[in-house]
Design a protein that fits this description.
mainly alpha; Four Helix Bundle (Hemerythrin (Met), subunit A); Arc Repressor Mutant, subunit A; single chain; 4% strand; 2 domains
């Protein structure tokens, strides 16, 4: 029980309460995706006032560990501050920078996905590819973006490396913006992912990596042509 304080002592108290909450997140007591206890519950647990709890929670929101959802509560979104730091830097990059980072990251996720995919995952991947192709054929921009994003994220998921998946997740906003930017420029002429999905189905890791690298390189080269 800490009790309440003022001035510099109160600031230290907020840091202590925030450290307690961070420990719950890191230990997995509050898993990613779960809602943390309410402010009154946290105040009772820590033995402090609700204002102190509110500020401690806000510090973890700013650090990228927690996120407030209006009308629902506060949820755990990461187990370390690294995703938020990376996300802020990526968000400030230009489209070529994002494409080149995607090349480095997605070649590895494609390679591992081909090596580790199951038959069930291949079936799901084919469904995502079919949905993407249908959206492109209909030339519905937001559907094109959503289905392409779902395909790339699923490949990162079936790669089976939680650290790579977390790194990819830190870039979701930037990747989505990049996909939208590419579709706005190229529309239905943007190359598909048939060869990528085929390579993953066949377990051909090298071919899958080359396929995604070639696809993204087309995007990079198209930027040069527009300069």
């Amino acid at each position: 029980m800490y009790g309440e304080a003022t001035g510099s002592r109160r600031h230290g108290l907020i840091e202590q309460v925030a450290a307690q909450m961070r420990e719950h997140v890191v230990r997995g007591d509050w898993p990613v995706g779960s809602r943390i206890p309410t402010e009154p519950e946290l105040a009772a647990l820590a033995g402090v006032g609700r204002n102190t709890v509110r500020e401690a929670v806000q510090s973890l929101v700013h650090a990228g560990l927690l996120a407030r959802r209006q009308g629902s509560g506060t949820y755990v979104v990461a187990t370390s501050e690294l995703p938020a730091v990376v996300s802020r830097h990526v968000a400030g990059g230009n489209q070529r920078d994002v494409l080149e980072v995607r090349q480095a990251l997605e070649q590895m996720t494609a390679f591992l996905a081909a090596r580790r995919r199951t038959d069930e995952q291949v079936a799901q991947l084919k469904e995502l590819q079919a949905a993407r192709a249908a959206a492109v054929a209909a030339e519905e921009l937001e559907d094109m973006v959503a289905t392409d994003m779902a395909l790339h994220r699923y490949i990162a998921q079936i790669a089976g490396n939680p650290l790579l998946l977390e790194l990819f997740n830190t870039m979701l906003d930037a990747v989505e913006d990049n996909i939208r930017f590419n579709f706005r420029r190229l529309g239905a002429t943007a190359p598909g992912h048939e060869s990528l999905v085929d390579a993953i189905e066949q377990g051909a890791g090298g071919e899958a990596a080359r396929s995604i690298d070639g696809y993204l390189q087309i995007m990079v080269d198209s930027l040069k042509d527009s300069e």
